[in-house]
Amino acid sequence: MIEDPPLLDIARRLDRPVGGLVDQFRDTPTSFIVDAMGGRGAMDWRIKPIGAVHSFVGIALTCYCGPADNLALCAAVARCEPSDVLVAATDGFTGTSVVGDLLLGIAKNRGAAAFVTDGLVRDQNDLDKLAFPCFAMGATPNSPARNGPGSVGLPVQCGGLQVSSGDVVIGDRDGVIVVPQANIKDVVSRLAAVREAEAEMLSGVKSGLKEVGFVTELLAGDRIRHSDNPGAKR
Predict the structure, then answer these.
(1) Beta bridge partners of residue 49, listed in sequence order
(2) Which of 20, 118, 131, 234 has the most crowded Cβ, counting Cβ within 10 A?
(3) How far apart are CA 55 and CA 110, in angstroms?
(4) Model pTM?
(5) What would the pLDDT profile of 163-216 be if each residue is shown by its tens digit?
(6) CB 168 within 8 A of CB 61
(7) What is the Cα–Cα distance from 65 to 63, expressed in whole angstroms?
(8) Are 98 and 63 in contact (CB under 8 A)?
(9) Residue 66 in contact with residue 121, Cβ under 8 Å?
(10) C-alpha atoms less than 13 angstroms from C-alpha of 166 in its C-beta half-sphere
(11) SS3 assignment for the chain
(12) Per DSSP, what are the bridge partners of residue 58?
């Protein structure tokens, strides 16, 4: 006989990275950080800001809610600490919302940095007034139940990525990215080169740059074939 699962599976201890490392990502576009991670690291492109605030940096506190349920999120809010980003995995369920402005208002009161879900939210007008970073696949007025089962603090799949509590989560208008905790120092060290390269290119664009350097070299090289009859089939 299969026993009923516990309503919630909650991690006893959460390892959070040193705050100084997390601060290295502040005021940095998600695109820069992704470049420092080799061009990947973003959640599903449909997870975008809902409400008036479009950027955040913080430390993941994960919860698995499953479809049409938010018991685990309620428990995660009760455990969240300043700078935590509540990451609520719903298996991408879009039949109901997973949260509204009231529970997120409580999270804000506890000092949470943001909320991210692969599901939906509701109360968009009130979320605008709340001024709390909220990223989701969209919105619906349909409400969830609070039955469980679920988990808090354990690894989840959200927006196509595995997210573990303690990872760094960054969001802006382009989307949400996740820096695994084990990679934070390496990514921070690569960011300096990315920022320098971006600043150099931006300076060139503002000064009237009309070609990207590597394209100039490519066009002058022997890997280009010039066709005399562009309309002919190959």
Answers:
(1) 135
(2) 118
(3) 19
(4) 0.90
(5) 999 999 999 999 999 999 999 999 999 999 999 888 877 777 787 877 777 887
(6) no
(7) 6
(8) no
(9) no
(10) 15
(11) CCCCCCCEEECCCCCCCCHHHHHCCCCCCHHHHHHHCCCCCECCCCCEECCCCCCEEEEEEEEECCCCECHHHHHHHHHCCCCEEEEEECCCCCCCEEECHHHHHHHHHCCCCEEEECCEECCHHHHHHHCCCEEECEECCCCCECCCCEEECCCEEECCEEECCCCEEEEECCEEEEECHHHHHHHHHHHHHHHHHHHHHHHHHHCCCCCCHHHHHHHHCCCCCCCCCCCCCC
(12) 169
Do you know the residue count of the chain? 234
Q: Which residue has the tokens 């980003």?
A: 85
Q: Domains along the chain?
A: 8-191 (3.50.30.40)
Structure tokens, 196: 């320098």
Amino acid at 162: Q
